[in-house]
Amino acid sequence: MKLIKVIVLKVIKTKNSFYTVFDLSFFRPGLAKSGGNLIRNYLLKNLSSFKVNNVLIFIKNKNNKSSKFFNINQYFPLEEIKDPVGKVVSNLKNLIFYNSAFLKIKKNKNIVASIQASGNNYIIEGKDIKINDPRLKYNINHYVTTILSPSLEMKLIFKIEF
C-alpha cells in the first residue's frame, strides 16, 4: 500500500554541501500535515549542532599601560557594558553552531572560540567570533553585548561541544 510518493525535482551541489528539492504527494487526505511533521522531527533530531560551554571572560583597562587582563565571573558588577555579565554568558550559550560541511567531527574534540573587542558603544555580535574550525557555521548577527566605555577591553574565550 502506497502512502507517499516522493519525486526528486532538483539536486544542487556546492563546494561544501548539497541540497535536494523534492515533491511529496500523499495519497490520503490529512496525511500531509502529519507526514510533514514526521519529516521535520526526523531532520531536526539528526541535525548535528554544537553548544557553547565553559565561558571565560577577561577584562582590562586600555588607558592603563601596565594593566593586564583579569578573569571575572558572571556575578561581577561591570558597569562598562550594557548587559549584566550573567546575561552575556547566557547570550553566548544561546548561540548554536552547526556543522556546515556535514563532516564527522569527533565528539571529544575541543573547539575553542574567542572574541576580543573594545570601543565606545561597540556592539559585540557573532561576526566578532574567532574560531579554530571553519566547518562550524552560526548566526553572525547574534547579539552578545554592547561595550559602553572606551577604556574597557574585553576578551571572551569559550569551548564549543557536541
UniProtKB/TrEMBL annotation:
GO terms for biological process: DNA-templated transcription. GO terms for molecular function: protein dimerization activity. Keywords: Chloroplast, DNA-directed RNA polymerase, Plastid, Transcription. The keyword Transcription applies. One of its GO terms (cellular component) is DNA-directed RNA polymerase complex. In plastids the minimal PEP RNA polymerase catalytic core is composed of four subunits: alpha, beta, beta', and beta''. When a (nuclear-encoded) sigma factor is associated with the core the holoenzyme is formed, which can initiate transcription. DNA-dependent RNA polymerase catalyzes the transcription of DNA into RNA using the four ribonucleoside triphosphates as substrates. This is Plastid-encoded RNA polymerase subunit alpha. It comes from Phacus inflexus.
